[in-house]
Specification:
This protein is of the alpha+beta class. The protein contains 17 helices and 29 strands. It has three domains: 57-80 and 391-643, pyruvate-formate lyase- activating enzyme (Alpha-Beta Horseshoe); 85-188 and 345-381, Beta Complex (Endonuclease - Pi-scei, Chain A, domain 1); 198-335, Homing endonucleases (Endonuclease I-creI, Roll). The two termini are 23 Å apart.
């Protein structure tokens, strides 16, 4: 356990604005006060409020960072987004069947998608994590009648990329979101599986008895044996005779069973064509009649190549074929695969409306190997799983985004430790592990207390952030800068808004960060911009670097430094999954570049640094004093790289 420097927070210091407490985190932090908040932006998140025993932390001696001391008032990051769906949402399994989202377990094999060439394609992936939360629910209704109940944060794949269920066109909550002009990608709502009735079983046995050849697939044989063992004696005698006749009056259950049985006996599905063949025209006619009664489109043809048989083929694309497989439920899973098929659809999946249900519902989410899954027939985004919380004995996925450790006594601890005789007034770096100006800071307001203490003790410090909440504390920063050295830096790795939505969806946009740089600069601060992390193959080209440096110069930055992507353990696994999902063609390149560990090869780092320096010269940001903080006599050396987190 790694909680030795933490203790439970007495209830008396819990803010009154907190919602009712949730149970403490099992095992990892017994007795901690856990809070959830009604604010939609924190839906699904739990804040574990603790009283830390120390706050100014010594950086390990083997660290490559250019500073010795740091303050981290938070563990975990509320910048991250969470996504979730209603528990009864049907998920497409690897065996071609469906299961409710709430009933999935870690290790289940399901379908996701990966980009391959021009198209995304269906592939089998694995459930890596599964959890439940409670959030305000929305209903998304599509033109084909598909309904999806999800949180406002959830994302679906549209013809124009990933989009959240809700959002705004401007302001702090601006993000791509579903509108009536969007079309979701997939096949639309799944058909329900047939009921296990006597009529269905009789129909299945009848269909199996019409097979032209011996059935060798074990799954249909096991189902047939089970049904026969439980069938009335008359049905068993007909089966022994080799042919079961259809009843005079057919129910839909019987038709579904018949189609499943005859498909198991004489059908085929190669991913693009689903058909049932027979040398007996009567069997083909019965199958065609059942398809017609159940609303399928089909064609009947003679077998080619001189054959003397017939076949009936289901038409209508993958949506129709999946409807057949789900509605009839044949036993042979080998005939149900869609792996490798392109993500295409002729189904009308246009968004008709997105409406709030007005209630909080239990919602569920999973993490998969591909980063997505097929939910009620459409491609659904899942939560990114990151291993960066494991040093707190929390799980490697959802906990990082949803379980935030808040050291509520950070301000008083800073003041106490700065006054200790052993403290020698050394430089303190903040924002180097997780962002001190993440969204949770807007509620807990720990930084004003920390900055006040640093100001009162005239202790030099620096802040690296992606958050715009730092502007709230501008008066305190100005006061501190009048008595000590204050260094401010913004991390802006690129200015491509679409890439930002894919890489850092929970952070302020590059545009908003650049606006913050301008305001801090106007207040008299020298604000450095870290063009970081620079992503190989994505933002390391001259065009991307030039655009980022030009934007930083226009915002008034005092200087720029390029820092390449650092993939330490934990972040490495998360980033690899993201890369494989979003840019699979780059995976071999990353394997080669990072085969030596967390850092890029030295020559590659030098090449990236050179590109940044050239751009800096073009825009007048190459002066030696660019990163001198206000009144700081000696700036710590810059780190070689910056972690993605």
């Amino acid at each position: 356990m790694r909680w030795d420097n933490l203790s439970a927070l007495p209830a008396s210091v819990v803010p009154d604005r907190a919602a009712p407490a949730t149970p403490p985190l099992p095992l990892a932090l017994p007795g901690a006060v856990a809070r959830t908040f009604d604010t939609p932006g924190f839906a699904g998140m739990t804040f574990y409020e603790v009283r830390a025993k120390s706050i100014i932390n010594k950086v390990p001696g083997n660290s490559r960072m250019g500073f010795d001391w740091t303050i981290n008032p938070y563990r975990g990051c509320s910048h991250a987004c969470t996504y979730c769906l209603a528990g009864d949402t049907q998920i497409l399994l690897a065996d071609g069947r469906t299961r409710a989202l709430r009933d999935l377990v870690v290790g289940d094999r399901i379908y996701g998608t990966v980009r391959s060439g021009t198209y995304r394609r269906y592939v089998v992936t694995e459930v890596l994590a599964h959890w439940q939360t409670t959030k305000p629910a929305y209903r998304v209704t599509l033109a084909d009648g598909t309904e999806l109940v999800a949180s406002g944060d959830h994302r679906f794949l549209t013809e124009r990329g990933w989009k959240h269920v809700t959002g705004t066109m401007g302001g702090a909550d601006q993000r791509p979101h579903l509108t009536s002009g969007n079309k979701l990608m997939g096949v639309g709502r799944f058909a329900p599986a047939p009921a296990d009735t006597a009529d269905y079983r009789a129909g299945y046995l009848c269909g199996m008895s019409r097979g032209d050849a011996s059935v060798t697939d074990r799954e249909p044989l096991r189902r047939t044996g089970r049904y026969l063992a439980e069938a009335p004696p008359a049905v068993a005698r007909l089966a022994a005779a080799g042919r079961i006749a259809a009843p005079a009056v057919l129910s839909d259950d019987w038709r579904k069973g018949f189609l499943a049985g005859v498909f198991d006996a004489s059908g085929s599905h190669d991913g693009t064509t689903l058909r049932i063949g027979s040398i007996d025209r009567e069997t083909i006619d019965e199958a065609a009649a059942a398809l017609r009664a159940l609303g399928f489109d089909f064609v009947v043809r003679r077998t080619g190549g001189g054959g003397r048989g017939w076949y009936v083929r289901v038409v209508g694309g993958l949506a129709a074929r999946l409807r057949f497989l789900h509605l009839t439920d044949p036993a042979a899973t080998s005939k149900r695969s869609i792996e490798g098929l392109a993500l295409k659809s002729n189904v009308p999946l246009d968004v008709l409306k997105v409406e709030p249900l007005g209630i909080d519902l239990p919602l569920y989410d999973i993490t998969t190997g591909t980063g997505d899954f097929i939910a009620n027939g459409v491609v659904s985004h899942n939560c990114f799983a990151r291993n960066t919380h494991t040093y707190l004995d929390l799980d490697a996925g959802h906990d990082f985004d949803s379980k935030i450790i808040v050291k509520v006594n950070a301000g008083e601890l800073v003041r106490k430790e700065l006054s200790a005789r052993r403290w020698r007034g050394e430089h303190i770096a903040m924002g180097t592990n997780v962002d001190v100006y993440q969204r949770a800071e807007g509620r807990y307001r720990l930084m004003p207390q920390i900055l006040s203490a640093l100001r009162d003790f005239a202790n030099p410090f620096s802040i690296l952030t992606k958050g715009t909440l730092i502007l709230r504390d501008l008066p305190l920063l100005t006061q501190a800068a009048s008595v000590t050295s204050v260094g401010l830096s913004y991390s802006i790795g690129f200015v491509d808004e679409e890439l930002w939505r894919r890489v850092e969806p929970g952070t302020p946009s590059p545009r908003r960060r650049l606006d913050a740089v301008r305001r801090l600069t106007d207040a008299g601060f020298k604000v450095g911009v870290l063009v970081a992390p620079i992503l190989p193959g994505l933002t390391d080209d001259e065009e991307s670097i030039d655009a980022a440096v030009a934007a930083a110069a226009a915002a008034g930055a005092s200087g720029v430094t390029g820092i390449a992507l650092h993939l330490r353990p934990g972040t490495r696994e998360w980033y690899a999954k993201w890369l494989g999902r979003e840019f699979p063609d780059l995976v071999p390149r990353y394997r080669a570049l990072y085969r030596g560990g967390s850092y890029l090869p030295k020559e590659y780092q030098r090449e990236i640094t050179a590109r940044v320096r050239q751009a800096a010269r073009r825009y007048g940001l190459d002066r030696q004093d660019n990163f001198e903080p206000r009144q700081l006599p000696e700036q710590p050396p810059e780190p070689e790289q910056l972690t993605l987190l």
